């Protein structure tokens, strides 16, 4: 059946607008291929009209051919654009995924070594019956100093050393205030560790940071002696650094413990003995200050810097690495 050129060209217009409608509602990449086959495939609409060329008079054929070629390249171009558009839409929540694209694997985070060491410390003391307590980072003079038997003119109360806020508040310089807060609300037997952040006015360098972490320990009961303190801390050092680790105690001074000591751990010939914590028997003034009878009860306390322990355990040379959040550092532990 012979058809007129005008009819055919009219039909091509209808095909163009049908294509346009279909493409306009497309949301998924898979559907692009179906449309491509339908319009541009070997048995598709465009091919169908190419076959009709022979039904036209030779003089009319080029007009149809031109129109078909234009339609074909128009369709091809639309589909390519659509493919690109759907691909980038995919990121905004459409279902579009190109499973053949090589992915960019998201880098998984790592636990900060400080938290890893803290987990170990908690585990070791947890097995010895110490429960975890926390306290506020913003403290007042009473809990940070006075109740801990610091004399009024103690140098660490100085503006130079402590971050003072308005209203007699300050950022705690150690975790020892948690000792006081615990003993105020809890009667012996007491066995707690108190991890957390502390602050001192230090200029940051390889071994100082104005913000750092400590773990406090406190045990109060009848009959607690210095040998309990030593036994507990030696067991701790052996668990954390290895069974063969040598430790020693040196006499020291803290206002809230009497006697006081520092514990050193022997690392190797290069590092030698290194201090890892301060400790002592809870000062009678501290006990009576919170209403615990020092004639009946005794206790020991200790405090360690988590950064220092982590630096020794993992041989980290600069304290600032802990806070940089650089994944190249964090992934090593
Ligand atoms: N709070 C002391 C410090 O920050 C450490 C310590 C805690 C010492 C408990 C003895 C007992 O240096």
Q: Compute the CA-based radius of gyration.
A: 38 Å
Helix content: 40-55%
Count structural domains. Answer: 2
CATH homologous superfamily classification of the largest domain: Bira Bifunctional Protein, Domain 2
* H/E topology pattern: HHHHHEEHEHEEHEEEHEHHH
Extended strand count: 9
Kindly provide the name of the CATH class of the largest domain: Alpha Beta
Major pleated sheet:
7 strands, mixed
> From the helix content, strand content and strand pairing, which structural class follows?
alpha+beta
**Would you tell me the overall average pLDDT?**
92
Bound molecules: phenylalanine
Q: Strand share of the residues? A: 15-25%
Shape: rod-shaped
Model regions low in confidence, pLDDT < 50 over at least 5 residues:
none
Q: How far apart are the termini?
A: 81 Å
Strand arrangement in the largest pleated sheet: 1-4-5-9-8-7-6
- Oligomeric nature of the chains: single chain
- CATH topology of the largest domain: the name is BirA Bifunctional Protein, domain 2
What is the correct CATH architecture of the largest domain? 2-Layer Sandwich
What is the structure about, briefly put?
The chain has helices at residues 5-24, 29-40, 45-51, 61-89, 113-127, 141-144, 177-185, 226-241, 284-289, 306-314, 321-324, 327-330, and strands at residues 131-132, 138-140, 169-171, 190-199, 211-221, 247-254, 257-266, 273-282, 298-305. It has 333 residues and is of the alpha+beta class.
């Amino acid at each position: 059946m012979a058809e007129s050129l005008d009819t055919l060209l009219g039909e091509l217009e209808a095909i163009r607008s049908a294509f346009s409608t279909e493409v306009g509602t497309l949301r998924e990449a898979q559907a692009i291929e179906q449309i491509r086959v339908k319009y541009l495939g070997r048995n598709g609409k465009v091919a169908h009209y190419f076959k009709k060329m022979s039904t036209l008079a030779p003089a009319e054929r080029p007009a149809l051919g031109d129109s078909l070629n234009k339609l074909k390249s128009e369709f091809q171009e639309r589909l390519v654009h659509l493919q690109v558009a759907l691909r980038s839409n995919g990121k905004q929540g459409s279902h579009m995924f190109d499973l053949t694209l090589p992915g960019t694997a998201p880098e998984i985070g790592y636990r900060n070594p400080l938290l890893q060491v803290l987990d170990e410390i908690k585990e070791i003391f947890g097995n010895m019956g110490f429960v975890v307590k926390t306290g506020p980072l913003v403290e007042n003079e009473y809990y940070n100093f006075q109740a801990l038997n610091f004399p009024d003119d103690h140098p660490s109360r100085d503006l130079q050393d402590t971050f003072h806020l308005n209203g007699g508040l300050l950022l705690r310089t150690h975790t020892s205030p948690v000792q006081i807060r615990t003993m105020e609300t809890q009667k012996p037997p007491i066995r707690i560790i108190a991890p957390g952040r502390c602050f001192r006015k230090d200029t940051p360098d390889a071994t100082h940071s104005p913000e750092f972490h400590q773990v406090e320990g406190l045990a109060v009961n009848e009959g607690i002696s210095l040998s309990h303190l030593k036994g507990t801390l030696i067991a701790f050092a052996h668990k954390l650094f290895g069974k063969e680790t040598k430790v020693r105690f040196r006499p020291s001074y803290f206002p809230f413990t009497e006697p006081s000591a520092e514990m050193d751990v022997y690392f190797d010939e290069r590092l030698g003995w290194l201090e890892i914590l301060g400790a002592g028997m809870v000062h009678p003034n501290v006990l009576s200050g919170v209403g615990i009878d020092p004639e009946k009860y005794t206790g020991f306390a200790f405090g360690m810097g988590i950064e220092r322990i982590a630096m020794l355990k993992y041989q980290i040379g600069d304290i600032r690495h802990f806070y940089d959040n650089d994944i190249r550092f964090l992934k090593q532990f």
